[in-house]
Amino acid sequence: MEAAIHIVMIIITLVFAVLAAELKDMMKAILAFMCANIAMAAIFYLLGAPYLSVFQLLIYAGAVTILLLATIHAGEERGD
Asked: How many structural domains does the chain have?
């Protein structure tokens, strides 16, 4: 049963990662990137690495996503 949960989480991560790479709308792509990182953090937690899971959530799902959103927002204000 536990292996099935791992497989489902891997599939969810891959789906969001492909969406992040293929979506044309940058806002939706960044949100898909964030969801892929959250799913990856869940995988790390299920594998018994809670500190790595927290690091994944804080740095990638949090800080990098915010930086990408801020970059897009700054570009829209200038009219680029």
From this structure: 1
